[in-house]
Amino acid sequence: MMRLPKFKYLQPKSIKEAVKMIADAGPTAMFVAGGTDLYPGMKRRQFTPPVVIGLSRLRELRRKRGTPESGIVLGAGMTLTDVERDRKVRAAHPALARAVELISTPPLRNMGTLGGNVLLDTRCNYYNQNYEWRKGVNFCMKKDGTVCWVAPSSSRCWAVQSSDSVPVLVAIGAKAKLVGPAGERVIPVADLYVDDGINYLRKRPDELLTEIQLPAVNGWKATYWKLRRRGSFDFPVLSVGACAWFDGPVVKDAKIILGAVGSHPIEAVEAQRAIVGKPLTPESIAAAAESAFRPAKPLDNTDFAMTWRKEMVRQYVKGALEELARP
């Protein structure tokens, strides 16, 4: 049985108090909401924070406001189940509802939060193991070691970004509100991420993610496609968040975001250019799928062969765009 390490648990009564607590506790302290990612990581000794600040009782983080016409604001502490089942979200942002619905299993969606999924730790077959297993292979660069066992000659960690909600949030242009001792700031969700398996977030340790701001509905269509071995529970080994703005049959603008094939969500820029200014025809879709294939950089650190996962980028981008092309 894997047990949690010892830690001090604090429970603030407000966002302001939570931010003060983490500032006082220092950079080794951590926030926890649903705990579906943090607590297993602590049991595997990937995280050993001396202070854990619980957010589950902060009603401020579970509030939702706004309308599809003005933009919907989701509290970062909303459970994944609440997001998935919300009627306004399902009506205005069905791609996000689909992505959230595909996360893990119902019991974990009942506990896990939207903010937790947005800030999900990067994953790797050599990292997401118990302490004894990792010690047996001499640890890895992401925790306690100096070598990336996926790419031993590399100077960086290649753990992958595997959040389901992120490709859709980035594609539709959602924003994140962060609150810290220095005040609050609102940034695009896309700007949260860094192409580094270890230092994968631009969120400062003393900042708290409080909101995800969804943009007003303005004529786009979006979708989410996910590749995994089983039909439930598994993390994606490839995901595609695609969004297109139309002027009649012509694509005015587009975002195609690849997940789980890099340490950050990858914007397939050339694939987007292949469809902008044109209708979504079999020819333009095929050109976009081919262009999306090139920036995907899967390595042998998740399920399935990496060459097959890269090949599937073509198929999944093609399928996502074909869905957007339907009336």
What characteristics describe this protein?
3 domains, 20% strand, 31% helix, 327 residues, alpha+beta, 12 strands, four-stranded antiparallel beta sheet, globular, Uridine Diphospho-n-acetylenolpyruvylglucosamine Reductase, domain 3, Uridine Diphospho-n-acetylenolpyruvylglucosamine Reductase, domain 2
Structural account:
A five-stranded antiparallel sheet has the order 4-5-8-6-7. Helix content is 31%, strand content 20%. The chain is built from twelve helices and twelve strands. It has helices spanning 15-25, 38-43, 80-85, 87-92, 94-101, 106-111, 114-118, 131-136, 165-172, 269-275, 282-293, 306-325; strands at 8-10, 30-32, 51-54, 64-67, 71-75, 175-180, 183-188, 208-213, 220-227, 238-247, 250-259, 266-267. The N and C termini lie far apart (53 Å). The mean pLDDT is 96. By secondary structure, it is α+β, with helices and mostly antiparallel strands. The chain folds into three domains: 1-57, Uridine Diphospho-n-acetylenolpyruvylglucosamine Reductase, domain 2 (2-Layer Sandwich); 59-119 and 160-213, Uridine Diphospho-n-acetylenolpyruvylglucosamine Reductase, domain 3 (2-Layer Sandwich), CATH 3.30.465.10; 220-325, CO dehydrogenase flavoprotein, C-terminal domain (Enolase-like, domain 1, 2-Layer Sandwich).
